[in-house]
Design brief:
Layout: E1 3-7, E2 10-13, E3 18-25, E4 33-39, E5 46-52, E6 58-60, E7 68-73, E8 78-83, E9 92-99, E10 115-116, E11 120-125
Parallel strand pairs: 2-11
Antiparallel strand pairs: 1-3, 3-8, 4-5, 4-9, 5-6, 7-8, 9-10, 9-11
Length: about 130
């Protein structure tokens, strides 16, 4: 069974940077797109960024545009999230997701994805 494993979370001061990674392992699947979502305590899960696997189209939430950058390494079956100019409101558990389906649901919608990682904690101190 395919697994997604995130790494790179931690504690950082406001204004700092972190780089998250999400590696896929186990049974391989034909990826259509991969994405990052986050969930802060007491809040709903929120879309952060997505990237299509073959075309490399990129989508960002307005809240992270200009600060975060999603990228991928097809050979390593890994996506990354470079997070700069971090703010306390970026504090959340960040999870990666993947889909192998062709679907009309937008990439910003969590229902689009059938594979999820367990998440990595990002804490931004003020």
């Amino acid at each position: 069974q395919a697994q997604l494993v995130e790494s790179g979370g931690g504690l950082v001061q406001a204004g700092g940077s972190l780089r998250l990674s999400c590696a896929a392992s186990g049974r391989t699947f034909g990826t259509v797109a991969r994405a990052w979502f986050r969930q802060a305590p007491g809040k709903d899960r929120e879309f952060v960024a997505a990237i299509t696997w073959t075309g490399g189209r990129i989508y960002y939430a307005d809240s992270v545009k200009g600060r975060f950058a999603i990228s991928k390494d097809n050979a390593k079956n890994t996506i990354y999230l470079q997070m700069n100019s971090l703010k306390p409101e970026d504090t959340a558990v960040y999870s990666c997701a993947a889909t192998s389906r062709g679907d009309r649901i937008g990439y910003e919608n969590g229902a689009r994805y059938e594979f999820w990682g367990q998440g990595t904690q990002v804490t931004v101190a003020s």
